[in-house]
Design a protein that fits this description.
293 residues, alpha+beta, 9 helices, elongated
């Protein structure tokens, strides 16, 4: 057994919270794990863990060993994966968190194509619009659309889109067609809860920004739901082109304020700042940039 094995078990026990939980996770006995930790402490000559029947905590030395050791294990594993991947053989699991609408409307075709190229790779897609703290999650990659707020992450642009202001013909026939952004304040505007700020819509004309404060009787945390509500005549939406494209093409929605431009929005692939980026993540990001450019 190498010193890396001892380090591995310390990290696993600390993160699992108990010896038994770590042992169960890896299908070994608690006695075997306890022995590995005891031998590690004897080799280092310092107490790393304080254990009771129900609880476990690190000593000062144990906390330092865990923090530095976890980083070393991650870098070692990533190094081995990158070296193994130089043969273009990508394998293993890749957990990705993606906004619901972007995943359904944009991402699936290139993901399918990527998996055909690398059939030994397994991808788990989680569709979710909420904020994800990737540092405290088990995701390898998080994709988000719009303005980024977490500067602690590495973010690479993979696609661009733009916002479209539109409504159903039935709504416009009853309420009239706004001729300028300021007139939106007199309309029922359907709000996306994850935009910041939710009640401010941005427009531009002749290089002059024209933000407008809007309000409405419906807000949702998903753009597809707002698109469906707009099709039913509920109100006006300001959503990415990839969400409203089909409804515009079919005539279910009509674009308004065409003389005004809306902000460009980008989709970003985000991951923690680390020295070694696993090759499977690097290749996927490069592939998405090529396909979605």
């Amino acid at each position: 057994m190498s010193h890396f094995d001892d380090l591995f078990w310390l990290v696993e026990v600390v993160e699992a919270g108990t010896l038994s939980a770590a042992a169960e996770k890896h299908h070994v006995t608690s006695a075997a794990v306890s022995k590995r930790l005891r031998l590690l402490e004897e080799r280092l000559g310092v107490k790393l863990l304080v254990r009771t029947t129900r609880h476990l905590r690190t000593t000062e030395a144990g906390a330092l060993y865990y923090q530095r050791g976890k980083t070393l294990l991650e870098e070692f594993n990533e190094l081995e994966e990158n070296i193994a991947s130089t043969s273009e053989r990508l394998c293993g699991n890749l957990r990705i968190n993606v906004p619901l609408s972007f995943g359904m409307q944009v991402l699936m075709p290139p993901i399918h194509e990527f998996m055909q190229i690398y059939p030994q790779l397994q991808i788990s897609l989680h569709l979710d619009d909420r904020f994800i703290d990737i540092l405290n999650s088990d995701y390898d990659l998080v994709i988000r659309v719009g303005q980024l707020q977490d500067s602690s992450m590495v973010a690479q642009r993979i696609a661009n889109s733009y916002l479209v202001c539109c409504a159903a013909p039935s709504y416009l026939a009853k309420q009239g067609i706004p001729q300028s952004p300021v007139e939106l304040s007199q309309h029922n505007c359907l709000l996306y809860q994850h935009s910041a700020p939710m009640h401010i819509w941005q427009f531009q004309k002749d290089q002059v920004n024209q933000p407008v404060t809007v309000q409405g009787d419906l807000a949702a945390n998903n753009g597809d739901i707002l698109c469906q509500a707009a099709i039913l005549g509920q109100g006006i939406i300001h959503q990415p082109a990839f969400i409203v494209r089909q409804a515009l093409a079919s005539g279910q929605l009509v674009q308004i304020l065409k003389d005004y431009s809306s902000p460009l929005i980008s989709a970003y692939a985000m991951y923690p700042t680390r020295h070694f980026l696993p090759m499977k993540i690097r290749r996927l990001i490069e592939f998405l940039q090529q396909r979605l450019a």
